[in-house]
Write a structure and sequence with these properties.
The chain has helices at about 10-20, 45-55, 70-80, 100, 125-130, 165-185, 210-215, 220-230, 300-305; strands at about 1-5, 25-30, 35, 40-45, 60, 85-90, 110, 120, 135-140, 150-160, 205, 240, 245-255, 265-270, 275-280, 285-290, 295-300. It is α/β, with parallel strands linked by helices. The strands form four sheets. Strands 5-2-1-6-7-9-10 form a seven-stranded mixed sheet, with helices on both faces. Strand 12 (about 240) and strand 13 form a beta hairpin. The chain is elongated, with a radius of gyration of 22 Å.
Length: about 325
């Protein structure tokens, strides 16, 4: 099958590679333009572009596909000339307008990292973990003009364990999506098979992650704080201020001992074993942390370099 692929991050790279290994003819790979990164602000290629270049595939990098944008017309004309049977879209990061959706013979199929209609939008993995969801998955959706509103061809379910963080769940879902799209496109479309419409209830949007989302609210119950921290582990990292510095917190766990009159944000243990912090209800442990300009350190190393005492408080307004 002639496939056009649109994706940008590592999550999408797994699906591109799986489609190539399955023998599909990828006529073009669309990915976001190279972005400046790091202190030197050098242009950084997306994981999808690097993989496509390694495979010798045609790479297209328009900055927009909107009708009003000058790059849109040439990009869509080139796509029409390539005449793909289907476009597979995975975390592309740009809006795919109706004119683009109409180009492939069988339209566009999106690999979305949630069980739709829950967590439509940009950050479904982080939002599912932060909300304390116990299950998520992959939805293979026929794209339409609305944001993640199209009918679903297939879904694959995945439990979220208490030790999962963004990275571990991301990797499982990326693999699940890659295997799912290969299976769907083996004989596509199957006679008589149609995607089913999404439910009208249960719609929740996974909005982009903001700076406020990363600020730890110690007044919340320990379970909620733990879920917030692991949702952004390893990146971009949940933050809390301590001693005038913004500290990134990682590897959270639940503190097993009972607390009397906990003071939210107060450190109740700080030694070579762990750092424990009181919450609105209960407490959590932090297994690793990172100071500004430093690297992520296990708590033993972190405390060796920055003595932290019992009784200190994390305080976002400090």
């Amino acid at each position: 099958m002639r496939i056009a692929f649109a994706g940008t991050p590592e999550f999408a790279r797994a699906s591109l590679l799986a489609l190539i290994e399955a023998g599909h003819d990828c006529v073009a790979v669309m990915t976001q333009p190279d972005r400046p990164s790091g202190r030197g602000r050098q242009l950084l290629e997306s994981p999808v572009k690097r993989e496509a270049s390694r495979l010798g595939l045609l790479v297209m990098q328009p900055t927009s596909l909107k009708a009003s944008h000058p790059e849109s017309g040439p990009a869509l004309d080139q796509l029409r000339q390539l005449a793909p049977d289907v476009m597979v879209v995975v975390a592309y990061g740009l809006i795919v307008p109706p004119k683009a959706l109409e180009i492939p013979r069988y339209g566009c199929i999106n690999i979305h990292a949630s069980l739709l209609p829950r967590w439509r939008g940009a950050a479904p993995i982080q939002r599912a973990i932060a909300a304390g969801d116990r299950e998520t998955g992959i939805a293979l959706m026929q794209m339409e003009e609305g944001l993640d509103t199209g009918p679903v061809w297939a879904e694959y379910r995945c439990l979220i364990g208490p030790d999962d963080n963004f990275q571990s769940l991301h990797d499982r879902l990326a693999d699940m999506g890659a295997r799912g799209i290969v299976d769907l496109l083996k004989e596509f479309p199957l006679p008589g098979r149609r995607p089913w419409p999404q439910a009208e209830d249960g719609v929740i949007y996974a909005h982009k992650i903001s700076k406020a989302d990363l600020e730890v609210d110690w007044s919340k119950p320990a379970l909620t704080v733990r879920d917030q921290i692991r949702a952004y582990d390893p990146a971009p990292g949940a933050t809390a201020r301590l001693g005038g510095e913004s500290v990134k917190c990682f590897e959270p766990g639940l503190w097993s001992e009972a607390l009397k009159n906990p003071i939210p944000g107060q450190i109740i243990k700080a030694d070579q074993e762990c750092l424990a912090v009181a919450c609105g209800e209960g407490a959590i442990t932090i297994g690793a942390a990172q100071r500004p300009g430093g690297r992520r350190l296990k708590m033993r190393e972190f405390l060796n370099g920055w003595p932290v005492r019992v009784g200190q408080r994390f305080n976002l307004t400090e």
